[in-house]
Amino acid sequence: MIAGLDEVGRGPLAGPVVAGAVILPQDASRPWMKDVRDSKAMTRLQREEIEPRLREEASTQIGSASPNEIDQLGIVQATRLAMERALNAFPLMPQYLLLDAFPLPNVNLPQKPIVKGDAKCLSIAAASIVAKVARDRMMDEADERYPGYGFARNKGYATPQHLRMIAERGPCPIHRLTFSPMKETGSPP
Question: Which of 28, 91, 98, 135 minimizes the number of CB atoms within 10 Å of its CB?
Answer without folding.
Answer: 91
